[in-house]
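Journal club prep, shared notes

We agreed each person brings one worked example of a sequence with its structure written out as tokens. Mine is 5-formyltetrahydrofolate cyclo-ligase. I'm keeping it raw so we can talk through how to read the token line rather than staring at a rendered picture. Sequence first:
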Amino acid sequence: MNDQQNKSALRLSARATRAAFVEGLDQMAHRLAFHALPSPVRALLAGRQTIALYAPVNDEAPALRLAESLIAEGKTLCLPRAVDRMGTMEFRAWSPGEPLEDGPFGTRNPSQEASLCHPDAIIAPLLAFDARLMRLGQGGGYYDRAFARYEHALRIGLAWSVQEVDTVPADPWDMPLHLVITERSLIEASA
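Then the structure, token by token:
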């Protein structure tokens, strides 16, 4: 199998694993997950003002739960907005309580009228990650392009612990995350 076939097979397996985990998760444990930023993450975000979150789709880790904690830290929040179906997205300002619009692929986005933002840190969804902090996404390339465009932004994956796999096949353009936050731990890139 080539890397694209490996990625496709891993996506199918990772979706099933994540769905089964979330379905079996105690409701209280699910509600309590991802409400607070671990201290090391707060320290890493200290010099960064604009933080990109995402509105979760299906059983993705619930990134919007971090909003209040980030606002308490004085951060400006933004969410991705798909520009086209070719993998281009931008980030638009958002605050809790503001309405979201339906976007492609079941996403929810800020309105096009919301202010354009340039994030210092991008908290991204994923299907799988490995110990090298390589990230497997949905396959559209949206976050790959955003990571390349904002190459100095801190890249943070948000995931359920069961999403860690032995190896994520990586293409030359794939950029590793700087850290991954799960409901159980914080995994940082090795120095």
